[in-house]
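--- STAGE predict ---
source: upstream dedup step, 1 unique chain passed
mode: sequence only
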Amino acid sequence: MTDKNSIAPEMAKSAAFFDLLEQETKDPPGVTRATYGAGETRAHALAAELAQDLGLEVTKDFAGNQYMTLPGIDRAKPAIMIGSHLDSVPHGGNYDGTAGVVMGLAVQARLLRLGRRLKQDITVMAIRGEETCWFSTHYIGSRLAFGELSADEITTCRRIDTGRTLEDHMAEEGFDPAAGKEGRGHLDPGRIRAFFEPHIEQGPNLIGMDIPVGIVTGIRGTLRYKSCRAAGEYNHAGAVPREFRCDAVFAATEFAQVLERHWDDCDRHGQDFVCTMGVFNTDADQHTMTKISGDVQFTMDMRSIDNDLLLKTDTFLREEADRIGHARGVEINLGSFANGKPATMDLGLQSLLGDAADTLGIKHANMASGAGHDCSVFANQGVPSVMLFIRNENGSHNPDESMEMDDFEKTAQVLATALDGLD
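--- STAGE serialize ---
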C-alpha cells in the first residue's frame, strides 16, 4: 500500500480520542458508561465533537443513536454503515464498543484527507445501550432503531443502579420513548447497503494465534434468564432429618450440575454451546450458618450459534427443574427468558475483508463471535453485515482491556481497503 492510501495519519487523533474518553468517563478501577447515563451521554458528545471537527453531518434518532455521515455522490443510494456502541459495563474497559466507532471515524477522516467521495453516503453509527447488564435486556439502541424493542421492555425494564425504567432514563436524556413504544423505528433495512462493526475480540483466540485481525463468520444467539429461583423451606440445621428437608441450596446446586452435564453432552456431540450462572446466592437477610436455606436466586446465560438448540435446552431444563424440585420438595422456577437470535455474517463481505487483508499482507483468521453484538440485529433485519475483531489482551468487561494501537491500525486499514473495493 502507498503512504497516500495508508490510514496511519488518522491514528494520532484516534489515540487521543481514546485517551480523552477514558479520562472523561473514568470510574476506578475502569470506566463506567451506563446505558442512558452520564458516561454514555458524554461519550456520544465527544464523538459528535470529533465528527463536527471533520465536517461530517451529525444527527440523532428518537432513541439517541447518533449518525455521523460523510455524504456520497448519489445520496439516494443505500448507505454504507459502520458502527458499534459507546456504553460500557460498570468499571469496564475503554475499548469495548468504542473501538468500532473510532475506527469508523478514522476511515471517514482518511477519505476526507484523500479528497475521495464514495458513490453513496458512509455513516458511522454510535449506538446506545448494547450492554445487557444495565437493563437486563439486549441491544436496546439497535433494536429501537429498527422498531424492534417491545413497549413492555421500555416501560418495565429497570436500570440496576437506579431502579428506574428505561422509559424514564430515555426521557431524562431528552429522547422519545413513546416513539419506541409505538414501534416507529428509524432505520430502513432496504436503505443500508452494508453494515460493518469493528470490535475488540473479547476472548483469547487472536492473542493465542498471534494474529491481529479476526473476520467474524457468525454471532452466537443468547437465552438470558434474570430471575431464576429455588424456593424451599427455612428450618433448623441440626434438628430436621434429611427426609424432611426442603433445601433450596442442594436443589439449586443439583440443577447447576444438570446444566453443566448438558454442556458436556453438547461438547461430545460437536454442538456449539456455552453457559454461565453469573448470579447464585441465598438471601442475606435470612441465611445463617445454622439454617437450612429456603431460598436461592440465580441467573443463567446460555449461548449458541444454533437457536433451536437453545430453545430445546430451555425445554429440557424446565423438565429437569420440575424433576429435582419434586424430589426435594423445592420449587425451581426459571422465569422468563430473553432470546437474542444468532446471526450469520454475509459471505461476500467476509471475502471482501479477507481479500483486503491478503492484499495488505496482514495476518487474519476467520472466527465466530461468542459474545453478542449489535451487528446481529442488522443481520437479522436482512442487512448484509459483518464484523472485524481487533486483537485484545486480557479479555473484556474488565478494566484491563489492552488493545494495541498497531493492531487497531492494521484492522482499520483492512476496513478502509475493503471499502475502496466495495465502492
